[in-house]
């Protein structure tokens, strides 16, 4: 008997797809060839009309649901919403989750070997944009025989990809679920990303991005970048509820090096854990893609005009205490869609967890997502 819950997709195996056709990038460079790693859950129906694409956020990857082994303790990052009978029901949908190009979990990225040099790309890997990711995802869809996605779903940076899909390939997306996201970053968000990048770039072990050649990683910089980012993913209320001003010991040490407060310990742990599993060059790439995303720029900032070609129906979700991607930014997207005369549903979820709420099984959130996904036709 399997130890996995009945609503789990169970054991899953990552799949790899190699693309020999060059990919032209927004930065003007070409990627001669590349690999994408992905997972699938559920079965593609005969009409190939039930496919759902899951787009990951900054530090996400292809392992969105299920387990890689019987011994794996934690399931994929969105297991709460993907599986039999769950919001994204694998009894109905064929779900595809991939690691973006430029990632560090199997898809071609800075850690990969450059076939021209025989060494890792490192700092020579090209800058990527959300549009580049969507174009590579479209190539994967072609290989899988998926002409049209029943839905493209994503939170945060993943929501930007879902939105870009409807703009770049309007005939290939029937529904778009954009969660805790925005049509472009605010100046404050760009500023946070720049602080994180500077923490990495100024680390003595960064070596202009070629740290692999020196057998080191910019661990301190990556830790600081993650600590800064993690603060922005939580709300003041959630941090207060988790940690308050609790001390780790029964007295203060009156120095600058001791870890005295529980919140300090938590942030250092998060930074250390992240620096052991994520690549610094990938972090730089992902944050730049966030900064560059602004599909309305080609139309002078007119979002409604940019959304004119869109054919998908939308569900837009925001969270009350998310100050990184506030509800106001989601409403900006909703207003643009309405001005472009598109079909859109909007729900604002009361949640104290801040930006991280989009990853959590909050009952009203899950109910709204389930209700929307359940009304998507899969046999058309």
From TrEMBL:
GO terms for molecular function: homoserine O-acetyltransferase activity; homoserine O-succinyltransferase activity. It catalyses: L-homoserine + succinyl-CoA = O-succinyl-L-homoserine + CoA. It is found in: Cytoplasm. Homodimer. SUPFAM superfamilies: alpha/beta-Hydrolases (SSF53474). Residues 50-359 form the AB hydrolase-1 domain. The active site is at residues 156, 322, 355. The keyword Amino-acid biosynthesis applies. It is an enzyme of class 2 (transferase). The record marks 324 as: Important for acyl-CoA specificity. Pfam families: Abhydrolase_1. The keyword Membrane does not apply. InterPro entries: AB_hydrolase_1, AB_hydrolase_fold, HAT_MetX-like. Its EC number is 2.3.1.46. This is Homoserine O-succinyltransferase. GO terms for cellular component: cytoplasm. Transfers a succinyl group from succinyl-CoA to L-homoserine, forming succinyl-L-homoserine. Substrate binds at residues 226, 356. Pathway: Amino-acid biosynthesis; L-methionine biosynthesis via de novo pathway; O-succinyl-L-homoserine from L-homoserine: step 1/1. GO terms for biological process: homoserine metabolic process; methionine biosynthetic process. Belongs to the AB hydrolase superfamily. MetX family. It comes from the Bacteria. Keywords: Acyltransferase, Amino-acid biosynthesis, Cytoplasm, Methionine biosynthesis, Transferase.
């Amino acid at each position: 008997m399997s130890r996995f819950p009945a609503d789990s997709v169970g054991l899953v195996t990552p799949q790899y797809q190699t693309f020999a056709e060059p990919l032209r990038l927004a930065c003007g460079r070409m990627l001669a060839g590349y690999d994408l790693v992905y997972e699938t859950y559920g079965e593609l129906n005969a009409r190939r009309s039930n496919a759902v694409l899951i787009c990951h956020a900054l530090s996400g990857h292809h392992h969105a649901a299920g387990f890689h082994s019987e011994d794996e303790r934690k399931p994929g990052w969105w297991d709460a919403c993907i599986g039999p009978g769950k919001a994204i029901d694998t009894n109905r949908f064929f779900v595809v989750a991939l690691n973006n190009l430029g990632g560090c979990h199997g898809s071609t990225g800075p850690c990969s070997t450059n076939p021209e040099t025989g060494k890792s790309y490192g700092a020579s890997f090209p800058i990527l944009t959300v549009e580049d990711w969507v174009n590579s995802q479209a190539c994967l869809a072609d290989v899988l025989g998926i002409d049209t996605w029943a839905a493209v779903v994503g939170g945060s940076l993943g929501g930007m990809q879902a939105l870009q899909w409807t703009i770049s390939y309007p005939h290939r997306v029937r529904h778009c679920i954009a969660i805790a996201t925005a049509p472009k970053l605010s100046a404050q968000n760009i500023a946070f990303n720049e602080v994180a990048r500077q923490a990495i770039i100024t680390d003595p072990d960064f070596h202009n991005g070629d740290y692999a050649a020196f057998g080191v990683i910019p661990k301190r910089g990556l830790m600081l970048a993650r600590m800064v980012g993690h603060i922005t993913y939580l709300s003041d209320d959630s941090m207060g509820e988790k940690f308050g001003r609790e001390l780790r010991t029964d007295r203060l040490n009156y120095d600058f090096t001791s870890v005295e407060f529980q919140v300090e310990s938590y942030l250092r742990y998060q930074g250390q854990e992240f620096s052991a599993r994520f690549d610094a060059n990938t972090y730089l790439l992902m944050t730049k893609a966030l900064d560059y995303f602004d599909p309305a720029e080609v139309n002078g900032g007119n979002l409604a005009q940019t959304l004119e070609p869109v054919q998908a129906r939308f569900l837009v979700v925001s969270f009350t205490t998310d100050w990184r991607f506030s509800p106001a930014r989601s409403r900006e997207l909703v207003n643009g869609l309405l001005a472009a005369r598109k079909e859109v549903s909007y729900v604002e979820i009361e949640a104290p967890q801040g930006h991280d709420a989009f990853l959590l099984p909050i009952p009203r959130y899950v109910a709204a997502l389930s209700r929307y996904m359940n009304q998507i036709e899969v046999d058309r």
